[in-house]
Structures are given as C-alpha cells and as structure tokens.
Description:
Distance between the termini: 40 Å
Shape: extended
Number of helices: 8
Radius of gyration: 22 Å
Largest sheet: 3 strands, mixed
Number of strands: 3
Order of helices and strands: HHHHHHHEHEE
Amino acid sequence: MVSWAKDNQDKVEMLYSRKIYPVVSQLVSFLFSSFNWSVAEIILYLAIIIVPLGLILAISSKENAAYHFFNFVVTVMAIASIGYFLFYGLWGLNYYRQPLADIMELEVVKTGSDELALLCEDLINDANALSDQQDTDRNGITEMPYSLDLTFIKINEAYQDLGEELEIYKGNYSNPKEVWLSDKMCYTEVTGIISHLQVKQMLTLL
C-alpha cells in the first residue's frame, strides 16, 4: 500500500485524501468526541506498562520460557502490524498526497537570504505586537484570557473559519484534549501531540 502510494501521488490525492479520508476522519472524530479524555493517550500509557511487564513475565516463566517468549513476541508484532495498518488507513497515506503548493496552486520560487531575513523580521515584529496585547502576570508571563474549555472551543472555531477560507481545511473537527502529563511534557518542550487514532490534537499546557 505504501509503495503504491509513493508512486501514485495524484491517485492518493483524488481517491484517498479528498474522498476516503474526510469520511474516515469525521467518523472517527465523532466516535471519540464524547470522551473528555484521550483514548489514544490511555492506550499509549497501557502499552508502556503492559509491554515491559509481559516481557518480564514471559522471560521469568519457569515452564516453557522459550515458548512464552516467542508467543509474546508474535503477539506484540501482530498488534504492531494492526497499529501500522490503522495508522496509514486512518491518516498516514496523506504523507504521499500532492504537495501543498500544488493543491493550493501556489507559485514556488527561489528566494535569497535577504528576503528570508526580511520575512523573519516581519514575523518577529508581528509576534511582539501581538504579545503586547496579551494579559500577563506580575512576572511578565502570558496568561490565558479564557478558561481551558473555552480555549479548546475557540481552537475548534478557528479551524472552522480556516475551512471557510481554504477548501483543503474544510470539515468538522472535535475539540482538542489536554494531555494528562502535560506539565511533565512541557519540560521536554513538547507542546502538542497529533493522535492519528483519534484524528485530533492533544495539547500540553502548563
């Protein structure tokens, strides 16, 4: 499937990305939107606990240790294969769709370092101007103007507005969900996770 997709970007774009994926993503998003917590995150934590524990139990088995170890490896590989298939079926084939510039009919031209420097300067100025409009605490750290739940709703609304402007982003999105280990992940500078199982964003927040 992946080999075929690599050599058929046009077909992936027209058949999967524009017809199959929108239906699949909306269905999966709808199924998991009723949960206030991330199912994918729970599965990840369970895997971190169960896989090492299962390996220890298989190795430490007093009877037929080799058989239990082999059975454990086969089981893990089978589950990993299913996960691999689900990844590409639910989202991963989008890696092989047409380039964004082609989809949006953008002209791609080479630019020099001077133009790049000007762009970076403009972005910095815009970021500083927006930063001055944000509420801050006594230490100068930006404070969220809304509650966490309302922030997630506004993120969803922003996606809806983007979809009205650009056809490629059109669709119904479920609200992002907070990562339970958010504070720990922020120390590693991980600011968000894309869950392909649930087709949604999970945000790390301090």
